[in-house]
Amino acid sequence: MEIGSGVRIGPFEVFAPLQPAVSMIRQYGEHHFPGRLIVVEGIDGSGKSTQLSLLHKWLESKGYGVVFSEWNSSPLVKDTTKHGKKKKMLTPATFSLIHSTDFADRTERSILPLLKAGAVVLCDRYVYTAFARDVARGMDAKWVRELYGFAVKPAIAFYFRVPLETAIHRLLDARDGFKFYEAGMDLDLSDDSVESFRMFQGRILAEYEKMIPEFGLTVIDATLPIEVQQAQVRQIVKTHLDHAHELRVRP
Amino acid sequence: MRATYGKALPEMRLDDLGGKLVVIEGTDGAGRSTQINLLKPWLEELGHAVVDTGMTRSPLAGDGIRRAKEGNNLGRVTQSLFYATDFVDRLENEIVPALRAGFIVLTDRYIYSLMARAIVRGMNPHWIRSIYSVALKPDAVFYLRLGIDQLLPRVVFTRAFDYWESGMDLYPGHDMYDSFCSYQAALLTEFDRMSSEFNFEMVDASPDARTVCEHLKKNILQLLERDSRKSFVERLNADAAKERSFALDRIPTSPVHSNVFPVSFPPPTPAVAPASNGNGHHALNQK
């Protein structure tokens, strides 16, 4: 990078400088790092985390160097997010920005260097979660996509598609209710947290559906038995990793 | 009606933001906070309510940014977005409500410093501008400009070099002095580039604080007078309209002494009948 020379580059090599906004996100990630980035997406209760952890075990057993990264887990940022949620001081805009800050730290600190080092990086939720939630909260879709313009494009983005009622039954079986922001209570949709959750997650599902063609998400039917889903996931992952010759083996 | 730089935030109304948003910009050590400390009491003496704000003062992200800067592991993208979070929190919860209540908001730095810092750290200018497109356009931006030659002694002899002000995250191999010079020069280039794009009012920050302040006061008075003259004319027009409708109210639609009490009172003589002459004066006064 040349400071003050008038030559500007994006945050990373993968960032396409000065691309028109709409095409930016599709170009960000045509990276040539030796590693592979695999992400799972879907609403709460879709079973995506279960599937990712099964995939993790399998990849390790095959000898790949695998690293896992979770949404909202940056050591530098997560306390601020927690503080904002606890005090209910987040607006749609600051909710969006603090999550992008968290994601930026994880990208700079781990995702990017690990891909350069040749690891298989697994992410539970990725930029699509932000696109779905923030737009459901009323943020401008284009603004949010540009906000995440620094992100690395995943090799595969699985979307675990599940009907809303199935997800709600799974979640309520395991716990009593929903948290304030998780249920979209900040939007004043309903005073009842379950009802608010239903309306908010409905909006999120609609956003995911729009993103399937926009970003080429790989859809998995999350109502199928766990084993069937996992077999499909492994089959798809296998075809991507077979061509990756520079991956690190596990120490 | 106020405008943003492109995108409006959800549920942010722009039509009733009556106050004034005044930005004091400039590099580190240009004397921004000194000026704000002089301007605030002066404006209050003149009868204006003032709110002052600045970077990392948001209840949401201020502490988080300070903690993150204590270590040496705050990345460039993360840093840019953390500051954007801090800015938008203050925009929504401090700046906009103050403007709505008719305050003068004096802000120590605004999106321009944040964009300059991000751009010299290699961020895509298009990307960072897109993020700050939600910011309100201010009423005035005073850019306190100071060349590196004048900036250096201020920093060296008052508070010494700071890791971040010297851009040590950018030039880790340099010593603080070399790094400071390169970093501040890059920032100045970026500020000068933005100057015409964002209508900066350029203020030479090299004279003593009092002289700089007099210059700022003159400009701020012009800004306030321009608007108070406008609102004075509006008020005159409103008063005139009220006067007209008031006069109309007072014109009786029928004679005052109609047939309400025909027995007790003598019938009105034609001379007294026009109880009002149309100017609001009672007819009896004409005697």
Task: Tell me briefly what this model is.
Chain A has helices at residues 21-28, 48-61, 78-86, 92-117, 127-136, 141-147, 164-174, 193-215, 226-241; strands at residues 36-41, 66-70, 120-124, 156-161, 218-221. Chain A has 251 residues and is an alpha/beta fold.
Explain the overall architecture:
The complex is a heterodimer of chains A (251) and B (287). By secondary structure, chain A is of the alpha/beta class. Chain A has a single domain, classed as Rossmann fold (3-Layer(aba) Sandwich), CATH 3.40.50.300. Chain A contains nine helices and five strands; from the N terminus they run αβαβααβααβααβα. In chain A, strands 2-3-1-4-5 form a five-stranded parallel beta sheet, sandwiched between helices. Mean pLDDT of chain A is 86; it is low at 1-28. Chain B has 287 residues and is α/β, with parallel strands linked by helices. Chain B folds into two domains: 20-234, 3-Layer(aba) Sandwich (Rossmann fold); 257-287, no CATH class. Chain B is 49% helix and 9% strand. Chain B has helices spanning 32-45, 62-70, 76-100, 111-120, 125-131, 148-158, 176-197, 209-250, and strands spanning 20-26, 50-54, 104-108, 140-145, 201-204. The longest helix of chain B has 42 residues, at 209-250. Mean pLDDT of chain B is 84; it is low at 251-287. Chains A and B meet through helix 3, helix 4 and helix 6 of A and helix 2, helix 3, helix 5 and helix 7 of B.
